[in-house]
Structure formats: structure tokens, C-alpha cells
Amino acid sequence: xxxxxxxxxxxxxxxxxxxxxxxxxxxxxxxxxxxxxxxxxxxxxxxxxxxxxxxxxxxxxxxxxxxxxxxxxxxxxxxxxxxxxxxxxxxxxxxxxxxxxxxxxxxxxxxxxxxxxxxxxxxxxxxxxxxxxxxxxxxxxxxxxxxxxxxxxxxxxxxxxxxxxxxxxxxxxxxxxxxxxxxxxxxxxxxxxxxxxxxxxxxxxxxxxxxxxxxxxxxxxxxxxxxxxxxxxxxxxxxxxxxxxxxxxxxxxxxxxxxxxxxxxxxxxxxxxxxxxxxxxxxxxxxxxxxxxxxxxxxxxxxxxxxxxxxxxxxxxxxxxxxxxxxxxxxxxxxxxxxxxxxxxxxxxxxxxxxxxxxxxxxxxxxxx
Length: 369
What we know:
Blueprint: E1 5-14, H1 19-28, E2 33-44, E3 54-57, H2 68-78, E4 83-86, H3 89-102, E5 106-110, H4 119-128, E6 134-137, H5 140-144, H6 148-153, E7 159-161, H7 168-173, E8 192-197, H8 206-220, E9 224-229, H9 235-243, E10 251-255, H10 260-269, E11 272-275, H11 284-291, E12 296-299, H12 302-308, E13 313-315, H13 320-332, H14 334-348, H15 353-368
Parallel strand pairs: 1-2, 1-4, 2-3, 4-5, 5-6, 6-7, 8-9, 8-11, 9-10, 11-12, 12-13
Helix pairs in contact: 1-15, 2-3, 3-4, 8-13, 11-14
């Protein structure tokens, strides 16, 4: 009989949109796992199938240091597992150090391009990655974004690429959720609806998308509505941009949607999904939109070309006019719209959560054995 595995995911925080939480609950349903835990450094909010995992939170308020009692608690919790799986620079820094002192193997997942980390985050993650038994990047683009000194201290055989995947059952079932974007904002029934989801940060470039849709309304003569879900540090700035736009009544910030199923429902109700990111590690949201049959327009960054290839249309980075032109192309060419819809759905079948979880399971086994 194969040995059963116990694994604890160490994260900064966890919630319904957390990829590590998706990993953990999917692993908990497999026979290979006898125990799956989540240790959050800061906080945990309720997420789907939460009861299937052993959840703990240190509730640390400091973003820099932990005290002796918090360290002792983390060490006590992690000592119960065969594998420690770290995900974020801050909690991962401590998690990898504690695992090394306990003699427990560590897997570190790098979820974002190095541009997505602060200087301290890059240093904390890079230095402690030498303690990990394996560093798994969510794309080759993430691997190539490592600083030169990081690559110099890591052995290539200890670094691999494991792509993220979509929980297809959850995405598809969300279409039956009793919620709609039309319950939140007034959308013209005859409009083409463009949408995006993500934190309102510099990385996601929602300012570019807002300007693009405003221009398209002026240039196309057709009603184009925009909905963006998410919150973040740029919310006030984006609200001001919308207020000053010529077609502000067609531009909508939905705020943070508590349940991930609401995001999926939004994706199924819109006509085109746009991700104008300046950088990404993978961006599973675009893949989720494709799985729902919503054609995508993405920024022309390396990771999108790597993952999505010819299943999406691409626009120049930080170029609202380029975004507007690609949107107009899909709107004006129904046959091409159908082509990209089919390509996206076909591609999404290649990136499933089940496949991702099985790859990590095989990785854990190879390390333990």
C-alpha cells in the first residue's frame, strides 16, 4: 500500500479566491493524503470545502517580525506534517526556515513574476529558496524572471514548472448561482459587455482598460459597458478616472465579490474578458473565463503567449488604443468571436486543477521517497 502523505500549506492569508486553498481542498479529497493543513500567517476567511482541511492562523499583526510565542506555535503546527508547502514571500521566509530546523522537506511555489514582489519580498523568497527541496514555478516566464543572483544559488534540478489549473466543476456550476451583475449595476440591454477581475493594482492596469472602453464608445458608435470586479489600493484613483470619462455611465467598478462563484457568474454574463496586465505569473482568471466560453483579449506579455498561445487576442502593453482595436475586431467579426471562443474552451481542458494537484502529489512522493 502506498504511503499516505500529510502536507501543510503555509500562506500569508487564505480565502475563497485563494489558489493554495483550492490546492489544499482538492488534495484533501484524494486517497493519497491522510492530512492536509493550511497555516496562515495573518488571517483566514471562509472558503469552499474549508472543513476538509486543518486550518490554523497565527493572526500576526506585524508585517515584518514574529515573536517567540508565534514562532513556537508555527513550529508546533508544522512538526505534524511530512511536507511543508510554502507559497508567499513573507510566510514562506519563516516557513522554510522552520521546516529546515525540523528536518521536514519543503516545496515552494512561485506564483508571480518577480516584478510582482517588493525588493524585500524578492530577497526573502530568493535567499530562503535554497532551503527548499523543490521550487515550483507556475510558468516558465516566472522561472525566467528570477534575478541573476537567485539563479546562481539555485540548482536547476531543484527548479521545475507546474502550471496552475481550473476547477472545472466549480466554474461550470457557478452559472446556476442566484446572482447577477445586472443586480449590481444598470447595464444597457443592447450593449456589448466587457469585463475583468483582479486586484485594483498597478500590475492589473485597469486604468488602461477603462480608457480603452471609453474611447471605443466614442469611436464605434455602439454601446460598450465595462464591469470590473475587485478592490485594492487604486480604487479611488480608478473611480476618479471613471468620473472624468466621457461615458462614465457605462463604466462600472463592482468592488470585491465575496464568493468566487460570483466572479465566475460575471465571466459567463459578459461578452469579452480583458486582462491588460503589465506582468503576471500565470493569471488563472483568464483561463477561467475561457473555460466559460468567453473570448479573451490579453496584454502581449511573455507569460500570456506561453500559456494561451493562439487562444486569445493580444494588445500592446499600456496602450488603450490597441485594446480598443482588438475589442472592436471581436465585436465586428462574429465568425472570429466564435473561433476564439472555441479555442479558449479547448485550451482550458489542458489546464485543470486535477492535473496540477496530481503533479504536486507526484512531486511530494519523489521528495519523501
